[in-house]
Design brief:
By secondary structure, the chain is mostly helical. The protein contains 14 helices and no strands. The mean pLDDT is about 85.
């Protein structure tokens, strides 16, 4: 991160440590009170603990026009996004995505759609369901590298983060506590389960918490659906298509509905929230990621509804293009914040002990 960004965040953190009015708001403030000096790695850890709920800002008596000009949500947001870009591997792609996220995502989707139509000559002579339009081997050849390589890049990035913040040996208790916090979105509860102040200034609301839970659990259900489909195909020799009462469909349809609803809700909340308490530099990339998730889930549902119609090849092409774009941009999009935040929560539990 830049020297100016680190110094400003350190200044505000030290003031908050002296005041301690917001000690019960989220995990950030108890973590601040455990030390009196803050190295750059400590600031990075605190920034990734912050969920940008903004409750501390509206409770603070030292915000502008006070001369101390405290705006901790924005200061930590700037450190947080700088840490994602600095620690990303390979470096350089993340900053371009932040500045032109919507344009890049749209361009990649369009190019992949054109590519899919270009390889239509490889259409299999026989096959059921989607395999009648694109062979299984071709799908594997395209999607396996696009899935594995981004995961490798994110693993390298998170390892860099862990070393940067001075993380030690990971304990099972810390992992369990961190996963519990993620599953319940505890740090979006505002300290008293009233919610946060993200979209409507000093009014508490659990809307952002619920939207995040719908998105998280919807994504996990869709991932589980795909995983069970893979097991059925390779272990039990049961290739797609699957019936409506099969595990892939019983998990995928509710997951798609939850993911579509959650991401659409998050887009609305982001449009309602002001820019002054977040990092305005990455607004395009943040919005692009949420819109892309919505496009993936919604196109998947529409593809299912279009079964046995002439729309299938077109919907399949668009759906696969959005999925592939999501995979390729994972290490440099807002998606990576989930892994950094999980690492920060694990580190916070271990530091507290």
């Amino acid at each position: 991160m830049s020297v100016e960004t680190a110094q400003e965040a350190r200044r505000q953190i030290e003031i908050c440590n002296a005041c301690r009015y917001c000690e019960g708001y989220c995990a950030v403030f108890p973590a601040i009170t455990r030390q009196t000096a803050f190295a750059d790695g400590d600031i990075t850890q605190l920034a990734n603990l912050c969920h940008n709920c903004r409750g501390c800002y509206y409770a603070c008596q030292y915000t502008e026009p006070h001369e101390l000009a405290i705006n901790l949500p924005r200061a930590l947001a700037e450190v947080r996004t700088d840490s994602w870009k600095e620690l990303a591997w390979p470096s350089g792609f993340g900053r371009a995505y932040d500045r032109h996220g919507m344009a890049i995502a749209t361009m990649v989707v369009v190019c992949l759609c054109l590519l899919a139509f270009a390889v239509s000559s490889l259409q299999p002579a026989a096959g059921e369901g989607f395999y009648a339009y694109m062979s299984h081997d071709l799908m594997v050849a395209i999607f396996a590298p696009a899935f594995v390589l981004p995961l490798l890049a994110m693993a390298v990035s998170v390892r860099r983060y862990w070393r940067n913040v001075g993380g030690g040996a990971v304990t099972w208790r810390a992992v369990a506590c961190a996963f519990h916090d993620v599953a319940t979105m505890r740090n979006l509860a505002g300290g008293q389960d009233q919610g946060c102040n993200f979209e409507d200034e000093d009014r508490f609301s659990n809307a952002r918490r619920v939207a995040h839970q719908l998105t998280l659990w919807g994504f996990l259900l869709c991932f589980a659906s795909t995983s069970f489909g893979t097991v059925l195909h390779y272990v039990f020799d049961m290739p797609a298509p699957y019936g409506v009462f099969s595990l892939p469909k019983l998990l995928g349809i509710p997951g798609g509905l939850m993911l579509s609803g959650g991401t659409l809700w998050m887009v609305r909340l982001k449009l309602q929230a002001g820019d002054g308490l977040s990092d305005a530099r990455v607004r395009g990339g943040d919005m692009a990621f949420v819109v892309l998730l919505f496009a993936v889930s919604t196109s998947g549902l529409l593809l299912y509804l279009a079964t046995h119609t002439r729309l299938v090849p077109y919907m399949l092409t668009f759906h696969l293009a959005t999925v592939l774009t999501l995979f390729l941009t994972l290490p440099y999009s807002k998606f990576v914040h989930g892994f950094y935040r999980l690492a920060a929560l694990i580190g916070n539990v271990q530091r507290a002990r």
